[in-house]
């Protein structure tokens, strides 16, 4: 098979996953939240437990009127939802699904690339906030900027810990170097990475940039129709990306029991990503939204010192071994 044909097929596979897996996560969130809160949830769209609810929501968004505020910066306003989605699509290209080259584009500096691209998400939020010409949107954007710039530090430090332990920045290389006992000594880094990742994708309890009880809907206040749907899709793709990165960096990626990594590696990866995504949904139901001062205190007085201590521990273990 020609190289370019193989590359096109890999990219198409990633795009298919980009369009389908977030919908599965969104539908799971509907049902999981409903059961945790003792209610039915959406039941009518689709013959079995409302399985087609997200498809129905998508059709509804397409039919809604696309409104742009009169005072908005129209080009920036319209481009912001696309900028929110694209970084996650690019990140999925370098996350390995299994061994034997099951990755769209392997990179020797894959972790560095992923951390750089994920940080672009704050740009879309600032674009939407500024271009909306709305005070609530602007306040949401300022909150998002402070939140994302703050939590980027523990997010990167935690990832640096596992990269230092593996001795490589390659995501498949980190999975190859991973050992089960890493679940113990890299556990603090995993918790830090997971919590900071929730803040990066602005999921509850870190959804202060939206804070519907305070800011209407934050930086998304003026968005309607398909553009609003793009922001919602970006949130679900963010769950997928954080789940996949947590799996690859801290949970062994495609490694599983019974010595069937070569045959079922892709399945172990998907199971672990699904488990991490479930925990992200669980956090939304279990914890109330933090205040802005609590958010910053958690970042600078808890996560950053713990991430630095984890780096020292990793250095000590590497030197000792």
From TrEMBL:
Molecular-function GO terms, alphabetical: NADH dehydrogenase activity; oxidoreductase activity, acting on NAD(P)H, quinone or similar compound as acceptor; quinone binding
Membrane topology designation: Multi-pass membrane protein
GO biological process: aerobic respiration
UniProt subcellular location: Cell membrane; Membrane
Source species, domain of life: Bacteria
Keyword check for Transit peptide: no
Reactions accelerated catalytically: a quinone + NADH + 5 H(+)(in) = a quinol + NAD(+) + 4 H(+)(out)
Membrane-traversing stretches: 7-26, 79-97, 109-132, 153-175, 181-199, 228-254, 266-286, 298-320
EC number(s) given by UniProt: 7.1.1.-
Top class in the EC scheme: translocase
Keywords: Cell membrane, Membrane, NAD, Quinone, Translocase, Transmembrane, Transmembrane helix, Ubiquinone
GO CC terms of this entry: plasma membrane
Function recorded in the entry: NDH-1 shuttles electrons from NADH, via FMN and iron-sulfur (Fe-S) centers, to quinones in the respiratory chain. The immediate electron acceptor for the enzyme in this species is believed to be ubiquinone. Couples the redox reaction to proton translocation (for every two electrons transferred, four hydrogen ions are translocated across the cytoplasmic membrane), and thus conserves the redox energy in a proton gradient. This subunit may bind ubiquinone.
PANTHER family: NADH DEHYDROGENASE SUBUNIT 1 (PTHR11432), NADH-UBIQUINONE OXIDOREDUCTASE CHAIN 1 (PTHR11432:SF3)
Known partners and oligomeric status: NDH-1 is composed of 14 different subunits. Subunits NuoA, H, J, K, L, M, N constitute the membrane sector of the complex.
Protein family membership: Belongs to the complex I subunit 1 family.
Protein name: NADH-quinone oxidoreductase subunit H
